[in-house]
Amino acid sequence: MKNSKNSPFFVPLHKPFWGKEEERAALSAIRGGTGVGDLKYSEELSKAIKKIMAVDYALPTGSGTAALELACAAILSPGDEVILPSFTFSSCANAILLSGGKPVFADIDLTTYNIDPKKIEGKITEKTKAIMVVHYAGMACDMDSILKIAEQNNLLIIEDAAHALGAKYKGRFLGTIGTVGCFSFHGTKNAASGEGGMFLTNNKRISKIAEILREKGTNRSSFMRGERKKYNWVKVGRSLILSDILSAIALEQIKKLDKITSLRKKKAQYLLKKLKKLRTKIILPMTPGGTEPNWHIFAIRVPRLARDQVIKDLRSFGIEASFHYLPLHTSPMGKKLGHKPGDLPVTEEVGATLIRLPVYPSLKKSEMDYICATLEKIL
Question: What is the Cα–Cα distance from 333 to 105, expressed in whole angstroms?
Fold first, then answer.
């Protein structure tokens, strides 16, 4: 999107926090290897994540979507049901379906836009295998309640923490609380390498299965560690590893994670302060007690009939605001799975009223002032 005639400048929705360190790392990976996965930088990235997150196993993947597909492939059997929010990206439902499972959509909380624990229990059947939680915008789900439900019903938990790298719930990093955690290094994410992701778990059995699945169904990873003289095809698998060049960039981003999170928090706090005067016209994001969001997204809500016009007006002033997820249960695929509008009223309300505003580490005070003043003018 180019500068508008109404705007003195253009404010993008996302901007990676890249510098000379990422350039040098990418160049080093190019000069020092072939760029394939699981070489020097992939190994260093895995070690860094394991140390920071205090987890036993971390496997770099080609994307956050790949991490979700790996998680589902490692734990699901054909016919298994997985309960998840409809207010999420198609990758979540696709990962379940690709593993022969069935996505079962539950409604979300009106405050956090995360899956509502009270809506989970009514969706559990004898076929339910797991709950897939999505920490929307880097805001933690109510994990205590969800862990309790999972324990009582012998269910696994897949954490889609694509938005949540560096965010915490009661002192624990999101993505490390459930059975499996999935991160994204997509170019729009807090730590960005263009494309990329990470699969985490503390479960040794699941990690061994995942390691084989991501390497085309072979035991090549153990061969690379010198544990066997040859590697062989042992299982139906996929190609889900991350290029070492992108791992090198992601590693530099992980080194900056604390700084990135701190800067995003400062920007979000400033926006919250400036937009308080509009709280009779908009709904601002709220942080539940015990949570430490990473402010991957700064989302407001406006009346349903005004949402699209507000976005259009903001863009006309050079501010790249946007809506977000169209609920999966009302999509063409969702309808094929038997769902219809009205099934999940809170999800539908949030999907029709939410607006994402720009937030990223290099966002300037003058740009934030301009966003707030423009939004006030429009409303």
Answer: 13
Positive or negative torsion for Cα 51, 53, 54, 59: negative
Overall fold of domain 257-378: Aspartate Aminotransferase, domain 1 (3.90.1150)
pLDDT tens digits, residue range 54-90? 999 999 999 999 999 999 999 999 999 999 999 999 9
Q: Which helix (H) or strand (E) holds 73?
A: helix 64-75
Q: What pTM did the predictor assign?
A: 0.96
β pairing state of 128-134 and 102-106: unpaired
Name the phi and psi angles at 304, rounded to 5: -55, -45
- CA 266 centroid distance within chain: 21
d(CA 378, CA 375): 5
CA atoms within 13 A on the CB side of 104: 19
- Tell which CATH architecture fits domain 20-255: 3-Layer(aba) Sandwich (3.40)
Q: Which amino acid is at 64?
A: G
Q: How many CB atoms lie within 10 A of CB 367?
A: 18
Please state the domain extents for the chain: 20-255, 257-378
Q: What is the spatial distance between Cα 96 and Cα 334, in angstroms, rounded to a whole number?
A: 13
Closest by CA position to 325, among listed 91, 12, 161? 91
Which regions in the chain score pLDDT beneath 50? 1
